[in-house]
What we know:
About 40% of the residues lie in helices and about 20% in strands. The chain contains eight helices and nine strands. It has helices spanning about 20-30, 60-75, 85-100, 125-135, 145-150, 160-170, 215-225, 235-250, and strands spanning about 10-15, 35-50, 50-55, 80, 105-110, 140, 175-180, 190-195, 200-205. The strands form two sheets. A six-stranded mixed β-sheet has the order 3-2-1-4-5-6. It has a three-stranded antiparallel β-sheet with strand order 7-8-9, sandwiched between helices. Helix 1 links the parallel strand 1 and strand 2. The longest helix has 17 residues, at about 235-250. About 55% of the residues are buried.
Amino acid sequence: MTNxxxxxxxxxxxxxxxxxxxxxxxxKTVSALGGYAMTAITAVTVQNTLGVTAVxxxxxxxxxxxxxxxxxxLGADTWKxxxxxxxxxxxxxxEAWHAVGGGAPMVLDxxxxxxxxxxxxxDDAVETIRNELVPIAAIVTPNAPEAEALTxxxxxxxxxxxxxxxxxxxxxxxxxxxxxxxxxAGDVVRDVLLTNDGYRVFESPRIDTKATHGTGCTLAxxxxxxxxxxxxLEPSVEKARAYLMEAIRRAPGFGxxxxxxxxxxxxxxx
Length: 270
């Protein structure tokens, strides 16, 4: 008999000093949705809404030690993976998942480039993510450029999204894939989900806004939060998209660049 999921999410990602993306966005999202967020920080970034000016990596053995400390005491119902930085970080996470993960589902957001254009992933790490992390992911959630980097498929329209999802699941071994369409031009944003049940296309009107910082982190963390209480992946994606859209609409308007979201809208202070 398995224990009932308790809403525990272990987030493995980088820190964003501006609070809009990374660990900070992840914690806000999981907490707003009623989950319990724990962290293993892979890097400390120096950034705000205008961009990233420095990245300081946490040693891979310290990343693994953080994971082991959490799993040895608190446990986790779902893992959420964000910024890795290097191949060594990827391998540390893979090894930790096999050693202490207990089979927890993994939501993999393959963060490669910051919203302002700064690279957050070393070139050799892309192959390691493709070969070692994707095959153990319950769901991988790349945007169009990330899907292209992982699959080699051109992702410029709905057909490209479906083809990339097919490669991620049927060639690279992910359990499921959500190829996001926010980077594809058009008045409607389409995200393509591929599971064992086939394809599902989610559609929503594009919101004209500067509040786009941390959208990928937020969506993946919301999926992890819903999954961590036992929600299957497809309804987790559907609910996470709804949460994200409202967080974009309720953005506080902070900063001069790519602005953060209104993560706390479900539990907004009076």
